[in-house]
Amino acid sequence: MSQPSPNGNPDWKVEVSALIIQKLRQFSEIVGQWFALILRTVVQRLRTSPEEFGEPMYHLPVGSAEVRLAARAPLVVAYVVFRESRLVWIIKASLLSIPGSAN
Asked: What is the distance between the alpha carbons of residues 80 and 51, in angstroms, rounded to a whole number?
C-alpha cells in the first residue's frame, strides 16, 4: 500500500526499467555525489505531484495517460502519468550539458 504524502493523498507508484536504472547509475558516475540528491528530489516529486512537476508533452490514446518532461539540472526525465492507477513510468533519462565539461 502507498504511504500518504504530506498533502494527505496516497503517493503515486514510480516504475523504472532496468535500462533506465543502468543509465542513472552511469549518470551518477559522470556527475558525482550530488547526483543522488538530484535524483531523490526528482523521484519525490514524481511520487507526490507528477501532474504538477515538469511540462505536459502530449496525451496517449490509452485512458488518460499523459507524457511529461521535467528537469532538475543536470537530469532530464520523460515520464508517463497514468491517472486511474496513480502510476508514473519513467521512459527516458538524459543529462543536460555540464558547464565547463566541453573540451
From this structure: 10
